[in-house]
Structure formats: C-alpha cells, structure tokens
Amino acid sequence: MTRTILWGVGTAAVLLICLGLGLLLAVGIAPTPIVGIVRFENVIDFVAAQALTEVLDRAKTDPNVAAVVIEINSPGGYASSSENLFYNLIDVRRNKPVVAVVDGLAASGGYYMAVAANRIYAPASSYVGNVGTRGGRPVDPLIYPEELSSGPYKLTGGSHFDQIRQLELVAQSFISNVVALRAGAALNPLKVDAATVAEARIYLGSEAQAIGYIDAQGALADGINGAAELAGLRTYRTVDLPTYYDIVAPQSFAVEPLDNQVQALVRNASPDTIYMMDDRVPLPAAAQSALMDQLRRLRTAIPGALDGVSAGAITGVRPWPLPQTQGVAP
Questions:
Q1: CA–CA separation, 162 vs 122, rounded Å?
Q2: pLDDT at 105 over 80
Q3: Residue 32, CB half-sphere, CA atoms under 13 Å: how many?
Q4: N or C: which end of the chain has fewer CB within 10 A?
Q5: H helices within 212-257, ranges in order?
Q6: Residue ranges of the chain that CATH labels 3.90.226.10
Q7: Residue 168: count of CB within 10 angstroms of its CB
Q8: Nearest CA among 72, 179, 173 for reference residue 132
Q9: pTM score
Q10: Fold designation for 27-284
Q11: pLDDT of 255 above 70
C-alpha cells in the first residue's frame, strides 16, 4: 500500500516537473505576439496607397502579428485609391483586429480608411468625416482639330450628366459603407441616418464620438490597448510594420507641405478624376488652354464669328478639356 502511494506521488512529481519544463520552453521558444503599427500621413494617391497595401498584405498573413493599428493623418485623395485601401483594410479585418487612430485629420478618403477598422479612436480636437466625393466641373464634348475620334464622348468620356451621375454613384457607395459599418460598431454605433452622413460635414473628434463616427476619444496608446484587447492579448510587443518588413513607409512620402501634395495629386490626374478629399482643401485651378479660351469667346459671339478662324490658330493644343472658369456657363 505504501509502495503504491509513493509510486503515485513520484509519478505526479515527474509529471509536474515535465509540465513546468514544457511551460518554460514554450515561453522561451514561442514568439511574443505583435501589435503592428503603421502610420499613414499623406494625400491618398497611387504610390502611397500601393506602399500601404504592401504593408497590409504582409501583416494579414503574418502569424506573429495578432492585430494592426493604423494611425491616420490624411485629407483623402483619389476616390479609386481610397476605395482600394478601404477594401484592403476590410480584408485584414477578416483575419485579425484592426484599430484606426486619427492623428489630427481623417477627412473624406482618410475617414474611409478608418471606417474599415473594428474601432476608431480620435482626439477631441481632431477633424473627422466629410463623407462624399468631389471633382472638376463637367465640360462640354470637345472636337480636337488634330485628332479623329469614334464618338462624341471619346475625348471627354461622357456628357455633363454622365460625369455628375458617376460622382453620385461613387459617393453613394462611400455613404452606404460608412452607414453599414458604423451602424454595426460594437462600442459606439452610428446615431445618425444616411441623409445626415451624405451632408458631408466635418466634425471635431468630440462631436464625431457623439454621433458614432468614432468609438472613443484617444490617441495611439489607446489604439494599441484596444487592439490588444480585441486580439485577447495579455502580453505583446509593438513594432513599426514598415520597418519590421523592411518596406518604405507610406509616411516617408509626406515630405512636402500639404498644399504641394494636393497640387501634385491634381496635376497628375485627368480632368474627370473623382476625389474623396477634404472640401476645405482647394483643388488648384489648371491653366486654361488657348483652345478652350478661344472656344469660350466664340460661343458668346454673334453668328458667323467662326468665319475666318484658321485651324492653325489653335494647333498643338492638348486634347484634355480643362476646368471651366468661374462665371462661364456650362
């Protein structure tokens, strides 16, 4: 009987020792979970969006990264690039928690990025929202004297009504996604209807919390804690994801003042580009071409004013229809 008891005690002791050694080995060998941080501080153009997408793709499939925090300071940019980042962040969210932190500004396309996150934090004095689209004033169909086209809208892509309708369709998709995701937010759901969202107002962080545009007031540290909570982490380490993956960080492109970034954004875009950009940021007016100036003068002239106008007077002008000047009828 005594031998049996001693045998049982000895066996239990051996098992406890093995268990303890196993735990020690697990702690020493298993990697500490990572809360990855990436900062986006730029207008949303093709280059910046591609750089951020590369980071997100790596984080999405990395088993060591348990959650992602994206810190945003952006007035928005191209609608197409903003949409791509939104859906890429949604894809990451399907695999692990994503938390957005607004650092000063998340307007229009910048807010679209934040909406894809499980939670949104923003300081009380930050600017949030401006849900909608904008673009250059629609232009008339144009005949370019040195070029043939197969249809009346080949050079412009469509009529005034087509361009307005496309702007509205993109805006409606933006609004619908904001309403759907924020209405389903667990911490602070949306408290306004789609019509209010469509007004495209910009709110202070404190106002944004009151209507459900963000989940809580806070900064990066709060976002990290929130991401760890959503991932169920007690112990973790934080890393800068672009550095961790040795990828050029999106914020490295923000080396120029915002005005210069916006001017470069518009300069590289076609006239019918749709933007998701802070409405307080003016789109720089493009220089008017000799052709467009001449056409505007002739449109207001008396019949017969076209007589004697030679094609050579307007030769060599680019075919892009440029934005209308203020006060000129469409």
A1: 37
A2: yes
A3: 10
A4: N
A5: 220-231, 241-244
A6: 27-284
A7: 12
A8: 173
A9: 0.76
A10: 2-enoyl-CoA Hydratase; Chain A, domain 1 (3.90.226)
A11: no
